[in-house]
Each structure stands twice: as structure tokens, then as C-alpha cells.
């Protein structure tokens, strides 16, 4: 057998999955809700009995999301996921506004403004948090109303922006605040009104639900007007066309309830993992800021991110180097670059603990990481 053989040939029964920020494992309650909804034949837009039964499941899911997120039910617009929710907000609510976009945003937002829109970038500090002084200056400098786009929790570092202060500045200057809460929803309790957001995006598979369902949540009286990306058949109050994927939406609602009703503090496990990594030379990116408890960004000076991923994968450890959407171009992180980390932006991996992680999984990662940091096996993957 080849000496590069993977971890399963070494006696491990299955890989260790530590890439929850790419997608969480499916929660059993979400799976059950999906299977039940999949048994329904009717289209939620049909007026006959089968359609009404399907419609009831759709509206139950809408009411659940709305109640948990603090919006009116008709201001919960179902989408195909976080990317569509973000782009729908930017196109549907941002027409005629100047976009102020954080440097560390996900590409769905960095590239999501309408063609020809005026886009300015908001800088972050060394910890990855938005520079409030620069945000205030940007809000003051232009006469046209602003559309501010910031993620609540960064997908690579887990860093949390000071959203209360951001919301205060946006209200003061009449700006619309759109919050990408894709990584935060399900990992912390959120209320759109209390957060100060005008719109907020979430995604089912980041909280243990299925891929293919997300939502855009809107603050204010219902239903709030929203220019659709495409009209289709006028579903979602004419704001998002297309037959809704009922099983995925039911799974999304069930996953959110399960995540919020059975919260798990993963910070102690994450902290142990980070301390072990630092002991063998790693730098924890964003360590000085408040962060999601499940996320660690570990830079290993002198070791390319792609080589680290390959080495860990050979040991059966599933992690990433940032957004899964750009995994094909693994390696250089615009997030860490914006934080001023220089070469470390190409030498960092992201470890994100799923809701189902066990202590033994973290132990296996720490052992594998220590071997990699010592140079074991890196020659064959660099």
C-alpha cells in the first residue's frame, strides 16, 4: 500500500469533521421534518386540499422563523440560501443607495451590489472588527443615503462586529443596515429589532438544517416592499418567485429551533484546541476580539495553507482554509489580508467545530496538527 495512505487505512473508522462553518451536520429533528414534508404532494400555491396542507407546513415554518428572529411573519422571505438572501437584500432594498461594505465580508456580499452601484469599502482593525471611526466618517461624507453591509460573525475567524454601535451610527445617519448572519444564526439567539438591523440573511445548512433553504428577514411593518430578483409566479408576496422547496424549508425551521433550544458552548473545546496549536507555533487570528465559540483561524508561519489542508486530510481531519465557496482556489485569505496579517493570510486554516463534535475529535486534531507543525509528512504535499 502507498505510504501516503489516508487515515482510514490506519485504523480510523471515519474522518473527523471540523468544518462546520462550511456546513453543519444535519440535525436529526431537521431530517425528520424534511422527511415528513417530503411526503406531501401538494404545491403550497394550489388551493385544493393537498395544496392547503403543503401551505400549512410552509406557513408554520415561516411563523417559527419569524417568531425566533423577532420579525413579522410576512417579513420572512424564503430563499435558496444565504447568498441569495444577501443579494436579494442588496438589489431589492439598496437601489439608489451608496453601498458601504466591510473588507472582510463574504464574496456573496462583496460581489453582490447591483451593476454600476457606488461601492466603498469599510476597513477593519487588526482584530478583524470594523473601524467605527471610519464607518462614521463614511456615513458623514456623502449626501446619498448609505446601504451598510456587515456580517455579524466572520465566516473565517468567527470575529463578531460591534453591531450595537454600528446600528446606532446607521440610525443616526439614515443608513440601511443589512446584516449577514449566516454564521451567527443558530449559534446565538438573534432578534432583528434588538440587533438594530433593517434586513438580515440566514441559511439553513449553517445551523444543522439542509442545503438549499435560507431566509431574508425584514424589520418593520408587514409585508415590507422588496424588489424581486426574478418575478416567477409571484410567490413570497411577489418578492421571490419559484415554488418553495418545502422539505428544505421545514428542515430549516426545525434546525433553528433545535439549535436554540439545545445550545452548546463550544468555546472551552475551541480554546483547548487553540492553546495546543499555539504551543507548536501557530498564531490565532482574531484572538483579541469577541468571537463565535466554535471557530478558530490558525496560521502556521512558513507552511502554506494548501499543504496543511492536504496533510490533515491524509490524517482524516476535515478542515478548510476559509470560505467553502472558494475552496477550489484554496490559500490566500482576503479576510486575514484585511486584518494586516501579511504572509499569514496564505498560511492559515479554519477549524470550525460542529454541534455534534466530541472531545475525541478535538484530541485527534491536536495530535495531527502537532505532527504537521513538526514537519511530518509535509514534504509530500507542499
* Rg value: 21 Å
> What name does CATH use for the topology of the largest domain?
Aspartate Aminotransferase, domain 2
Order of helices and strands: EHHEHEHEHEHEHEEHHHEEHEHEH
Mean model confidence by pLDDT = 93
The major beta sheet can be summarized as: 7 strands, mixed
Strand order of the largest sheet: 2-8-7-6-5-3-4
By secondary-structure content and strand pairing, the structural class works out as alpha/beta
Assign the CATH architecture of the largest domain: 3-Layer(aba) Sandwich
Q: Poorly predicted ranges (pLDDT <50, ≥5 residues)?
A: 1-9
What is the CATH class of the largest domain? Alpha Beta
General form: globular
Structural overview:
With 382 residues, this protein is of the alpha/beta class. The chain folds into two domains: 7-18 and 265-380, Aspartate Aminotransferase, domain 1 (Alpha-Beta Complex), CATH 3.90.1150; 28-261, Aspartate Aminotransferase, domain 2 (3-Layer(aba) Sandwich). It is built from 13 helices and twelve strands. The chain has helices spanning 28-38, 49-69, 82-93, 107-110, 132-141, 163-172, 192-195, 235-238, 246-261, 267-279, 305-314, 334-338, 359-373; strands at 16-17, 76-79, 98-102, 119-122, 146-151, 176-180, 199-203, 214-218, 283-284, 295-299, 317-318, 348-352. The strands form three sheets. Strands 2-8-7-6-5-3-4 form a seven-stranded mixed beta sheet, with helices on both faces. β3 (98-102), α4 and β4 (119-122) form a beta-alpha-beta unit. α2 (49-69) runs parallel beside α9 (246-261) and α5 (132-141) packs parallel to α6 (163-172). The longest helix is centred in the first third of the chain and has 21 residues, at 49-69. The radius of gyration is 21 Å and the shape is globular.
Amino acid at each position: 500500500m502507498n505510504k501516503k495512505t489516508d487515515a482510514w487505512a490506519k485504523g480510523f473508522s471515519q474522518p473527523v469533521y471540523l468544518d462546520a462553518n462550511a456546513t453543519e451536520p444535519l440535525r436529526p429533528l431537521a431530517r425528520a421534518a424534511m422527511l415528513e414534508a417530503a411526503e406531501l404532494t401538494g404545491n403550497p400555491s394550489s388551493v385544493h386540499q393537498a395544496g392547503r396542507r403543503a401551505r400549512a407546513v410552509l406557513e408554520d415554518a415561516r411563523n417559527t422563523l419569524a417568531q425566533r428572529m423577532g420579525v413579522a411573519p410576512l417579513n420572512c422571505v424564503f430563499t435558496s440560501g444565504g447568498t441569495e438572501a444577501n443579494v436579494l437584500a442588496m438589489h431589492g432594498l439598496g437601489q439608489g443607495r451608496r453601498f458601504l461594505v466591510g473588507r472582510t465580508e463574504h464574496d456573496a456580499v462583496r460581489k453582490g451590489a447591483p451593476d454600476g452601484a457606488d461601492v466603498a469599502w469599510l476597513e477593519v482593525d487588526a482584530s478583524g472588527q470594523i473601524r467605527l471611526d471610519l464607518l462614521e466618517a463614511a456615513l458623514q461624507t456623502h449626501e446619498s443615503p448609505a446601504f451598510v453591509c456587515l456580517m455579524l460573525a466572520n465566516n473565517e475567524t468567527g470575529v463578531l462586529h460591534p453591531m450595537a454601535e454600528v446600528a446606532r451610527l446607521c440610525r443616526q445617519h439614515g443608513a440601511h443596515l443589512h446584516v449577514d448572519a449566516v454564521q451567527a444564526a443558530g449559534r446565538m439567539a438573534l432578534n432583528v429589532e434588538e440587533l438594530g438591523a433593517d434586513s438580515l440573511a440566514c441559511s439553513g445548512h449553517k445551523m444543522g438544517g439542509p442545503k438549499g433553504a435560507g431566509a431574508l428577514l425584514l424589520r418593520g411593518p408587514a409585508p415590507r416592499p422588496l424588489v424581486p430578483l426574478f418575478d416567477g409566479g409571484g410567490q413570497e408576496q411577489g418578492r421571490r418567485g419559484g415554488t418553495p422547496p418545502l422539505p428544505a424549508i421545514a428542515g430549516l425551521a426545525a434546525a433553528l429551533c433545535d439549535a436554540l433550544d439545545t445550545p452548546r458552548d463550544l468555546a472551552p473545546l475551541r480554546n483547548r484546541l487553540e492553546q495546543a496549536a499555539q504551543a507548536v507555533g501557530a498564531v490565532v487570528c482574531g484572538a483579541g476580539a469577541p468571537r463565535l465559540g466554535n471557530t478558530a483561524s490558525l496560521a502556521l508561519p512558513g507552511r502554506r495553507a494548501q499543504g496543511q489542508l492536504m496533510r490533515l486530510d491524509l490524517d482524516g481531519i476535515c478542515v478548510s482554509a476559509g470560505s467553502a465557496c472558494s475552496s477550489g482556489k484554496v490559500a490566500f485569505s482576503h479576510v486575514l489580508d484585511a486584518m494586516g496579517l501579511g504572509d499569514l493570510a496564505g498560511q492559515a486554516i479554519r477549524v470550525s467545530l460542529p454541534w455534534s463534535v466530541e472531545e475525541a475529535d478535538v484530541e485527534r486534531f491536536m495530535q495531527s496538527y502537532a505532527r504537521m507543525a513538526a514537519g511530518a509528512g509535509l514534504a509530500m504535499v507542499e
